[in-house]
Design a protein that fits this description.
alpha/beta, 6-stranded mixed sheet, globular, 12 strands, 419 residues, 19% strand
Length: 419
């Protein structure tokens, strides 16, 4: 089994390396160099997201003076960057540090003139790391809504539709603060389908929808009544404030799909197939998709089934975990019941963190479910309580990588050898 684990970890590493934000930015600026600044102008470089630090470091090596730089990332990825102010926010739930970062971004953009150029380096996680409540709302209001969203089971686009309408930065708000300076944005996608409006809630692009649509989504998800009264009033009263926005140049420099291709290339010794690059929806349904593919795969040769996406978890209990850990735990359960042979399954977040835990995900085999039982734990009860972290820890089945400095959503690997 150790060679299956080694192979799975090497494929996961290939996915993370392909999403290296510094290398992606370097390639882009080599292919399309920035034009010269106007006389007296500055490059105002702002990096937002889990990949902000490596993107900012690379940008400062490539983008000439005069310039001023601000980088905001998560605490795990925070580091000193000579020539830049560095801040950390909170993820996945924003806090006062996230609000302070939002104020810093707005204050820096307020200094922009039409001779300046704003260069935005955007990656996943920015929705929580940098927050600026819309007029009439507080950080507590936004945090309360974010908690509701994370427990709602909504797709990421629906979550970001709502977040944008509560923000002064998201959904193109950065463009308004930057005006009259033009904005050039380089974007690393953590969103399946690479909708630029959804990545970090789209600070440099038009919003996904309107306030009325945000209200409708919350009502359909049955979280409207639990939202703060100020949020309800804001969405009921606010017109489509971003109907007209300053133009920007937005370029996608990396994505989940690129990483999946690198995994396929690295699995050349296997019968490797990309089964899905849109593994979304509830983890239980996603597990069935993976199980069906595994059952249909050949059994007479080594197979590697590759998936990518971003699932969701319906939180019904009080346990600790994340979507990758819960997906792995579900596969451990159903795989033990239905799969034969020597198999292994890995599900991991390319950012190295899955939910509010120190794990990136899970690695399970045909033995994992029984190993949890042998530890004295009840895997069914832990799964029902959304306590996937404890369940996988009991079987030494957590995927722990540390922060990777990038974020292109999640990848999944199913490996099986002939018996």
């Amino acid at each position: 089994m150790s060679d299956l684990r080694t192979t799975a970890l090497s494929l996961f590493d290939a996915a993370v390396k392909r999403a290296d934000p510094a290398a992606a930015l370097r390639r882009q600026l080599a292919d399309q160099p920035l034009p010269a600044l106007q006389d007296g102008g500055r490059n105002i470089v702002i990096a937002i997201g889990k990949a902000a630090s490596p993107m900012m470091k690379e940008a400062l090596d490539l983008i000439p003076e005069p310039r001023v730089a601000l980088s905001v990332t998560n605490p795990e990825n925070l580091c000193d960057i000579p020539g830049a102010t560095t801040l950390s926010g909170s993820h996945p739930v924003p806090d006062e540090a996230s609000a302070a970062a939002g104020r810093a971004v707005i204050d820096l953009l307020a200094s922009a003139t039409d001779n300046d150029r704003v260069i935005a380096l955007i990656s996943g996680g920015g929705s929580a790391l940098v927050v600026a409540p819309a007029v009439g709302l507080t950080l507590d209001d936004k945090a309360a809504v974010n908690e509701l969203l994370l427990a709602s089971g909504l797709e990421i686009n629906d979550m970001n539709l709502i977040r944008q309408q509560l923000s002064a930065i998201k959904g193109g708000g950065l463009l308004r603060h930057a005006a009259p300076a033009p904005v050039t944005a380089y974007i690393l996608s953590d969103v399946i389908g690479d909708d630029l409006r959804a990545i970090a809630s789209g600070p440099s692009v038009a919003p996904i929808g309107t306030p009325a649509q945000a209200r409708d989504v919350m009502q359909q998800a049955e979280i409207w009544d639990a939202a703060p009264a100020s949020v309800q009033a804001h969405l009921d009263a606010t017109p489509n404030q971003y109907a007209s926005l300053p133009e920007a140049s937005n370029t996608l420099i990396g994505s989940n799909r690129h990483s999946l291709q690198s995994m396929l290339d690295a699995a050349s010794d296997w019968d490797a197939q990309l089964i899905s690059d849109h593994l979304t929806g509830d983890v239980e349904a996603a597990t069935q998709t993976i199980l069906d593919a595994a059952l249909a795969a050949p059994t007479d040769r080594p197979v590697a089934l590759i998936f990518g996406g971003e699932t969701t978890v319906q939180i019904k209990g009080t346990g600790l975990g994340g979507r990758n850990q819960e997906l792995a735990l579900w596969l451990a359960k159903l795989g033990a019941e239905h799969l034969t042979g020597d198999w292994l399954f890995l599900s991991g977040g390319t950012d190295g963190r899955d939910g509010p835990t120190q794990a990136a995900g899970g690695i399970v085999t045909a033995k994992t479910w029984n190993q949890i039982r042998k530890s004295g734990a009840n895997p069914d009860a832990l799964l029902a309580n959304n306590d996937s972290n404890a369940a996988l820890a009991a079987a030494d089945a957590l995927l722990v990588t540390g922060a990777t400095g990038t974020n292109v959503a999640d990848v999944q690997i199913f490996l099986r050898r002939p018996s």
